[in-house]
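Technical annex, item 7. During the second reporting period the consortium partners agreed on a shared format for inverse folding records so that results from different sites could be compared directly. Each record opens with the tokenized structure and is followed by the designed sequence. A conforming record, contributed by the partner at site C, is shown below for reference.
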């Protein structure tokens, strides 16, 4: 379940509302292109701007459309333990295969608090849990020794590592038997070399087949995996030239995959950065 290229799926909007029909079409697109798993309601899915009802309906829509063909890992984290529990229970009820649970943000808990937070969720809801560490967004870093302790909880089975620190990733892998997934497309190839199993990918929204191949080629064909890593290196970087998911939605519009719509406080991409992104997409042969 926790290997390969798992797309951090964007949430399409139309007239200010979630476009559930387009959402279902995107799910089918990813299955056809060989994406290994789908993650709705992550940061790329603009979960902070979704109401709880919208969040739950997006997860339910994706689970229903996937229909067990590939795994669905539902975003279900929060800075409130009670809210995270509610989202996790709903994900289990509607048939998600697992949940992604982010470190509590803004309130900046200590490592002890994060252990208590994740342990309670895992104890109260019997569903596989993928921890999510992204200190650049949350203001806290889930340390390797904390991951090692949490890995002893039976249904905490993986961690999405987006610290950008390969030393920290190696420390996690050396300490415990837990699946490590890259949370940064540009770190996928080095993470695979370190012993990671795949990526929860923003870039897979625009190059799903290529991201799946980058991961599946390793280790049997390291040269091909490395080739894809460098072919799309600039794309990996430019998809974060502004706050995610602004660039990836702009790229999808340029490629004819989606109309660009984001919710405030996100905004339209600057013209200068659009030109940079357009040039990168052209250089990759995507437009």
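Designed sequence (site C submission):
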């Amino acid at each position: 379940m926790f290997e390969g290229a798992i797309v951090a799926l964007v949430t399409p909007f139309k007239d200010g509302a979630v476009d559930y029909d387009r959402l279902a079409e995107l799910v089918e697109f990813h299955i056809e292109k060989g994406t290994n798993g789908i993650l709705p309601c992550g940061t790329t899915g603009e979960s902070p701007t979704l109401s709880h009802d919208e969040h739950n309906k997006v997860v339910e829509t994706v689970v229903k459309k996937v229909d067990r063909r590939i795994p669905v890992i539902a975003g279900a984290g929060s800075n409130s333990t009670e809210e995270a529990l509610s989202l996790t229970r709903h994900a289990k009820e509607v048939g998600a295969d697992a949940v992604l649970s982010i470190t509590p943000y803004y309130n900046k808990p200590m490592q002890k608090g994060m252990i208590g937070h994740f342990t309670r969720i895992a104890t109260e809801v019997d569903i596989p849990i993928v921890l999510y560490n992204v200190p650049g967004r949350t203001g806290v870093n889930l340390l390797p020794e904390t991951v090692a302790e949490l890995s002893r909880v039976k249904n905490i089975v993986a961690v999405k590592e987006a610290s950008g620190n390969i030393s920290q990733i190696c420390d996690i892998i050396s300490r415990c038997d837990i699946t490590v997934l890259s949370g940064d497309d540009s770190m996928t190839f080095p993470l695979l070399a370190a012993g990671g199993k795949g990526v929860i990918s923003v870039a897979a929204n625009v190059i799903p087949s290529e991201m799946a191949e980058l991961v599946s080629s390793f280790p049997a064909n390291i040269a091909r995996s490395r080739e894809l890593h460098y072919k799309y290196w600039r794309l990996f970087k430019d998809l974060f030239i502004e706050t995610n998911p602004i660039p990836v939605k702009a790229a999808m519009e340029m490629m004819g995959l989606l109309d660009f719509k984001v919710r405030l406080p996100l905004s339209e991409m600057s013209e200068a950065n659009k030109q940079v992104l357009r040039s990168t997409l052209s250089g990759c042969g995507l437009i």
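The CA atoms of residues 238 and 277 lie 6 Å apart. The beta strands are 4-8, 13-14, 17-18, 37-39, 73-75, 98-102, 129-133, 156-161, 179-182, 198-201. All partners now use this format for quarterly exchanges.
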